[in-house]
């Protein structure tokens, strides 16, 4: 199974969109309501390769995007804080003529999606927070992310990239060799190497604390919200997810057993069924049985 076979059976474009002059790589597929898919720190749009076809077949137009400074999107010499990432996504929506969209954000992508839902609620139809970051500052976790990423980027050893990806997964096999190769190539693009400290800025305590989403912020989210969390998430324990659930009015929390930091990838069949049911108009909270 490869990323290309994940995409069999649908038409899609893999192209660059100018988002307020930021050249932005996006995989776009389908027709219908727009769904924006945002990856995590040091990630790229391939994080959603297992989710696009089911969502397109369910009648949605999917946009998997390399976020600002990530993947093959431009890496301007500027700050990388949550409002910067959010501005880039809003500029992408404007460039595509999208007034409102559904958001599926994983890790950093969830943090950015949540910020947009808080500060620009008129742009958000619904919100899925998948192992979302941004509600806690844990120095040990931040150090692990920073050190493992910098080692993989600054050392031309594919084993370090493989280890960085496996850190995300409960089962090592989910860090496929194709994903490892894609990420290794991205990690060693000259502009990515030059950008690495800006990309990791949110792992610095002072910067993280001024960007963090607190309970009072989360309480402002009005969009229907589904929170998805792996019980084996290496970057956040279940209480982090339950606190998010308690803070966001009317939100639903779904915990995946035997799952790490990429529920949308590790347990894609279960995730896709749940996500699509949630997205069916109007977005609604749903009941999904356990494994």
Write down the CATH class of the domain at 3-136 and 215-279: Alpha Beta
Total strand count, please? 8
* Fourth-level CATH superfamily of the domain at 3-136 and 215-279: Alpha/Beta hydrolase fold, catalytic domain
The CATH level-2 architecture of the domain at 3-136 and 215-279 is identified as 3-Layer(aba) Sandwich
Per DSSP, the total helix count is 13
**Per CATH, what is the topology of the domain at 3-136 and 215-279?**
Rossmann fold
What low-confidence regions span 5 or more consecutive residues with pLDDT below 50?
none
- Radius of gyration equals 17 Å
Bulk shape: globular
Q: What number is the mean pLDDT?
A: 95
Helix content: 40-55%
Report how far apart the termini are.
23 Å
**How is the largest sheet built, in terms of strand order?**
1-2-4-3-5-6-7-8
Largest sheet: 8 strands, mixed
Report the portion of residues in β strands.
Answer: 15-25%
- The sequence of SSEs as H and E is HEEEHEHEHEHHHHHHEHEHH
Going by helix content, strand content and strand pairing, the class is alpha/beta
């Amino acid at each position: 199974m490869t990323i290309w076979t994940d995409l069999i059976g649908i038409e899609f474009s893999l192209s660059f969109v100018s988002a307020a002059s930021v050249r932005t790589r996006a995989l776009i597929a389908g027709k219908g309501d727009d769904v924006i898919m945002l990856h995590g720190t040091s990630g790229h749009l391939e994080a959603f390769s297992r989710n696009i076809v089911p969502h397109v077949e369910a009648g949605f137009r999917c946009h998997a995007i390399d976020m600002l400074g990530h993947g093959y999107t431009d890496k301007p010499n500027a700050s990388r804080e949550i409002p910067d990432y959010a501005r880039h996504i809003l500029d992408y929506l404007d460039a595509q003529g999208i007034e409102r969209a559904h958001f599926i954000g994983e890790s950093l992508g969830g943090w950015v999606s949540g910020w947009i839902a808080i500060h620009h609620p008129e742009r958000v139809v619904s919100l899925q927070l998948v192992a979302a970051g941004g509600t806690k500052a844990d120095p040990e976790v931040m150090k692990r992310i920073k050190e493992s990423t910098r080692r993989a980027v600054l050392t031309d050893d594919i084993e370090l990239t493989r280890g960085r990806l496996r850190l995300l997964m409960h089962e090592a096999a989910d860090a496929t060799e194709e994903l490892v190769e894609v990420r290794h190539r991205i990690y060693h693009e000259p502009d990515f190497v030059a950008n690495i400290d800006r990309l990791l800025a949110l792992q610095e305590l002072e910067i993280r604390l001024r960007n963090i989403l607190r309970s009072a912020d989360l309480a402002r989210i009005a969009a229907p919200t589904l929170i998805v969390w792996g019980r084996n998430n290496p970057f956040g324990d279940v209480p982090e997810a339950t606190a998010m659930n308690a803070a966001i009015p009317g939100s639903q929390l779904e915990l995946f057993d035997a799952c790490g930091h990429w529920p949308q990838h590790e347990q894609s069949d279960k995730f896709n069924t749940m996500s699509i049911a949630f997205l069916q108009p109007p977005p609604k909270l749903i009941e999904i049985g356990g494994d």
